[in-house]
Amino acid sequence: MTGGLFGGFRMALASWKARMIEIKTPGQLDAMRAAGLVVANSLAAVAAAAKAGVSTAELDELAEQTIRDAGAVPSFKGYHGFPASICASVNEQIVHGIPSREQVLAEGDLISVDCGAILDDWHGDSAVTLFVGSVTDAEQALSDATRASMLAGIAAVTPGARLTDISHAIETSVHASEKAHGREYGIVREYGGHGIGSAMHMDPFLPNYGKPGKGPRLRVGMAIAIEPMLTLGVEETVELEDGWTVVTADGSRAAHWEHTVAVTDDGPWVLTAPE
After folding, report:
1. pLDDT tens sequence across 78-117
2. Cα–chain center distance at 6
3. CA dist., res. 206 & res. 10, Å (int)
4. How far is CA 152 from the centre of its chain?
5. Alpha-carbon distance 221 to 264, whole Å?
6. Is 203 annotated as a binding residue?
7. Is 198 exposed, middle or buried (0-12, 13-18, 19+ CB in 10 A)?
8. 80 is in an annotated binding site
9. pTM of the entire structure?
10. Annotated binding residue at 96?
11. Does residue 258 have a known ligand-binding role?
12. 139 annotated as ligand-binding
């Protein structure tokens, strides 16, 4: 196992056909929604506090307090040794950034915050990309493209669809944004989405690109964390010596958006959406 599990299982670990995917009852999905609201509220608190002069360690403390005040437990803290309650990935950091007193936000920074919580043994997991003050048009477009691809993936969550229908929807949305924005984006391939429920990371692994019609069929009661990551440059990544922080290989900036989504008869249910 590696530290790369926060961004989803590595592709080499995926084996769609050989493993069972957890199916939740309606009551269990309700419990996941409660955990998802804790995550949503924690991210809202972090978003309000993410200003120039604030350290990522302070944001981590705020998130943990918000989670614990709700009677929940941070799912990241201690997970395979991870030392914090959020991942705070600044600028060229894509995912798994470790909050630090030394990492003080400055005007023009871009920060992706990934947060997870456990409530009554059920998990919620979500991520947002935030701006500290003003950023460039290219950085705004990067975040918009990433979020749009996440929403396209969510829209593909329907009973009877194949897993990679979500992947294809994400990639198709990215290419549409590229055309609209007049530039290319790097789709991070080594990390992706994952099943979620009674554990934070479960089968199946969800690539953020690929052909449709592959992988298991989506069934009512499944829950998947959909989390595209895009860069302003290349798709290649580098893991730093801390064993966690993943950065772009070319130093370009990155964005990350994520929601936990349930498969229902009525379509996708975004369990980590704000109330």
Report:
1. 999 999 999 999 999 999 999 999 999 999 999 999 999 9
2. 8
3. 10
4. 14
5. 6
6. no
7. middle
8. no
9. 0.94
10. yes
11. yes
12. no
